[in-house]
Design goal:
alpha+beta; eight-stranded mixed sheet; 19 helices; disordered N terminus
Length: 508
């Protein structure tokens, strides 16, 4: 007997019944296939429970997706050509003895006026509880203002010798800080062609080598009294900060100290971190720190610390109408030349000084709140850090000290070191006095890459659209046995129901 195809009802009930009997979704098809009511009710209940479980599980997955999680992986990239960082050096004793004497003996200078005021016992009563502050280096900085760079250590005296990648001659950029006065930066990042700073090998011969003179005159005058609250002051040596090329730093918070009388070797290892931007995280892809420029008019490379300091300085200026000496001055304020420091003493009105200083103290106490409320400063999306391995050795040996002085100062009679140390007398060059002065005044600093391998830490999206779709497919299959084809079946049913309604309308 010939088989005849099963006739299909074109009524809505018939179409739905046909769909339930043939759908690839699990469980729901049993409703039409079992005869007894209790089994139908059971399958309906099981399907609904599975559907509710699917919705709950799916909501968790969607919520996880919109949290935008990230994963971070770390790899070692071998034998890379790496760029040499900026190196900033500051004398730990910020005021040059020669500069101090020159400006203190000139009664027309701000330095002389301030020093005279401090030594006037009749006026000390006006200092009140601030007396210890007024004798500190930061107090000199804000009260002598532009003269700070003149009384600070000058490059021609500070840097005796500089060699980079074996070649002689280096270029430095000066910056001024309230705790160190003049600091000097090698590789300020201003050159468009950075190939000269690319390093392909390791060791001191492929790095920076400096010989520095400290002007540590033991018998020189003292412009400051000892203050136990100043934890980084009253030392002899050099503050060294290694930082990304072209970035601005605060040497009070950053860097490390090296002592005189030693050769200090600093081996570096570069690590780079790449962060995800919105919506996965908050990082900044800014190239430069907005509103901050060098004395030569060049932009500083963006760092979170510099961004925060500039933002805080702006807030302080707007709130207290004065500036802090240890935060950088935004370009738009600096160009006006119409500003004063909160800690600057008003010789005629002590109340003005107290008001400004107390206002600044309040701002500093609320620093974190101000940053959250007024500033949008995040870590750079791509940031470099330099691991450091520091070692010291005795330098220079006594038997080479005479030749050392002759080599570097024989033809430099105008330098301070020549006047202080060099005498064309062989007995003097071998004397214990010279040995003591060399040990207290000179140091050598070698900075180089110890390895050209780069440790790369990179964030990647932890839960992508593809992951979400895969999980949704797994959830649908787990709870109700659905797939993409099941949704196609639903679409087909809707079209057939619509067509059935249209056909019925036409017949009527």
């Amino acid at each position: 007997m010939e088989n005849t195809p099963k006739k299909t009802s074109h009524s809505k009930k018939g179409l739905v019944s046909e769909f339930l009997g043939d759908t690839t979704a699990h469980g729901i098809g049993r409703v039409t296939k079992v005869a007894e009511t209790k089994w139908r009710v059971m399958w309906i209940v099981l399907f609904l429970l599975g559907f509710v479980g699917m919705i709950i599980h799916m909501s968790f997955m969607i919520a996880t997706f919109f949290q935008y999680p990230v994963t971070e992986s770390s790899t070692i990239v071998s034998d890379q050509t790496v760029s040499f960082p900026s190196v900033t050096i500051c004398n730990l004793d910020p005021i040059s003895p020669a500069g101090e004497l020159l400006y203190r003996n000139d009664s027309t200078t701000k330095f002389s006026r301030y020093f005279t005021y401090l030594t006037d016992n009749a006026k000390k009563s006006f200092f009140g509880s601030f007396e210890s502050y007024f004798y500190s280096t930061p107090a000199y900085f804000v009260n002598i203002e532009e003269e700070a760079t003149a009384v600070g250590h000058q490059l021609q005296n500070f840097v005796v010798d500089c060699r980079f990648k074996g070649g002689s001659g280096c270029s430095f950029t000066k910056s001024v800080h309230q705790d160190f006065f003049n600091c000097y930066t090698f590789n300020d990042g201003s050159l468009n062609d950075t190939s000269a700073f690319e390093i392909g090998d390791t060791g001191p011969n492929e790095g920076l080598s400096l010989i520095l003179y400290l002007e540590a005159n033991v018998n020189g005058p003292s412009y400051e009294t000892y203050n136990s609250h100043r934890l980084t002051a009253y030392s002899s040596g050099v503050r060294v900060v290694i930082h990304p090329a072209g970035s601005r730093i605060n040497p009070t918070k950053d860097g490390f100290d090296i002592p005189p009388g030693y050769s200090t070797s600093v081996g570096m290892a570069l690590s780079q971190r790449k962060l995800q931007s919105q919506p996965y995280g908050n990082c900044s892809d800014s190239t430069y720190t907005e509103g901050l420029q060098t004395s030569e008019g060049n932009n500083y490379t963006y760092t979170q610390d510099a961004c925060e300091d500039v933002c805080l300085q702006r807030y302080l200026y707007e709130t207290c109408n004065c500036l802090s000496g240890d935060w950088p001055i935004p370009s738009e304020i600096f160009q006006t030349k119409n500003f004063t420091y909160c800690n600057k003493y008003d010789y005629n009105n002590r109340t003005t000084f107290s008001t400004r200083r107390n206002c600044m103290i309040t701002v500093r106490k609320e620093r974190r709140k101000i940053l959250r409320r007024n500033c949008t400063c995040f870590q750079p999306c791509v940031g470099n850090q330099f691991g450091k391995f520091i070692s010291l050795s005795y330098w220079p040996l006594e038997k080479y000290q005479g030749d050392f002085i002759t080599t570097f100062y024989k033809d430099k009679p105008d330098t301070l070191a020549y006047k202080e140390l060099y005498q064309n007398n062989s007995n003097y060059l071998r004397s214990q006095i010279l040995n003591d002065r060399i040990r207290k005044n000179f140091l050598r600093l070698n900075i180089y890459f110890e390895t050209t391998n780069v440790q790369l830490s990179e964030q990647t999206p932890g839960y992508t659209e593809a992951d979400l779709l895969s999980d949704i497919g797994g959830i649908l299959g787990l709870y109700v046995g659905m797939s993409i084809l099941t949704f196609c079946e639903v679409v087909e049913l809707l079209f057939r129901l619509a067509a059935s309604k249209k056909k019925k309308t036409d017949v009527q």
